[in-house]
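Annual report, structural modelling task.

Input specification for the D-glutamic acid complex:
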Amino acid sequence: MSSPRILLFDSGMGGLTVARAVARQLPEAHLIYSADNAGFPYGAWKEKPLVERIRNVIGKLIDRAKPDVVVVACNTASTIAIGDLRSTFSVPFVGTVPAIKPAAAMTKSGIIGVLATPGTVNREYTHSLIHTYAYHCKVFLHGAPRLAEIAEQKLRGHAVDMAELADEVAPVFRKRDGGKTDVVVLGCTHYPLLIDEIRQVAPWEVNFIDPSGAIARRVADVVEETAHKGPDTKVPVHGTVLLTAARSESSETLAAYASMGFAKHEIVDLPV
Ligand code: DGL
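The model returned the following structure:
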């Protein structure tokens, strides 16, 4: 059987944390990374135009990359558009949503923090995960305005402002009735890029949930069930990053992608 072609999609570099886990889980797979960096950050977008944009951009990317599986390695996109994408395109999709179910199973204090983008914390989808799986817990949701951007800057080689970082994460560390937050969900794929720094500014120790390993296992299951198209010389090769904005041809950005295994880049024209 030929190697599967897997297209990973995010608004920016966060999905690289998922790509890293998928590469570990499926070393033989051809990974093509894509970022709608012209639309980054997705966190502040209104829902309707964002769904339309994601549908249009992913349509263009599927035409270009001809994947066997698409991984929407972005909570902000998955929580709003995964149903729409599945009904629009025939290729199988794996999404990324905040790991509220495992957090509810893990917490001892019953107090959970969810760090995500402002978009993800407002989604109906996120609230229904809480009602279904964490109804017995106290859940502190925080839409961090700048955390994804701070993660991108770190990957580009810039120093992290630790005081700013501390302010971004502080709202999920809470005390209630003698207990305190003991599990924090990293509900945006960018945040694992900052895990060392987040641990340093955390006011006390907690378990952080990075769902990338679980997503990679789900991708492996879907790949197993999917027929692979086989090699095609006209489509992007393993290690290519498809970008929607030419501005990301900055050498720092390209070096950041290369450091995570995506050394070849291509600009994909935005659909109109
Ligand atoms: N990496 C994305 C997520 O998982 C979103 C970052 C952004 O565009 O704000 O939610």
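Residues 10-12, 14, 40-43, 74-76, 117, 120, 148, 188-190 surround D-glutamic acid (CB under 6 Å).
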